[in-house]
Amino acid sequence: MRAAGRGAGAVLAVLALAGCGQTVAAQPVVTTAEVRTDASCLDTEVLDALGLELDVSLRTQEPAGTTRGLPPAGFVADTALLCDRGETLRDSAGTWWAVTATRLEGDLDPLVRVATRTPAACGVGVVAQVWLVDALGAAVLLPRTAACDGDLTAALDDLDVLDRTEHPAALAQTFTRQTPG
């Protein structure tokens, strides 16, 4: 009886490994995000997703990468920080590409539910980036494609705007002063 049981187990194992002729789509691996204390729309990962690079004149230190992913167990989001391409800004240095940082509050449960499911596929183009921030300022950067999900966009739209700020990120055109001839 034992030999027959082992033989049946071996057959089942072979069939399971072979997939019995059925194709099973592999689920993408989504990591747990690194918890940071410095959620910023000028983060290297955020700017890269927005198609920008922080101008050298604005760097205070060497940019560090952020591990994106899902919030760790027990993380309780209090606000969301939405980062998107902004308008251009002008100053004495020239015209800057800007990033709009929008801090949002309200019922974050729908946002967290949508963000923790399998990320949607994105087309080409710039996609807004989302940080979840707890009451003490600890934050996680959601997967790059999280904002591609229409349900996430709807959940963001249901939140109230606390603050909106434009940050210069990349110098698009330098100002040239013309000297009288």
UniProtKB/TrEMBL annotation:
UniProtKB keywords: Signal
Keyword Signal: yes
Entry superkingdom: Bacteria
Signal peptide (UniProt feature, chain positions): 1-25
Protein name listed in UniProt: DUF3558 domain-containing protein
Annotated organism of origin: Cellulomonas xiejunii
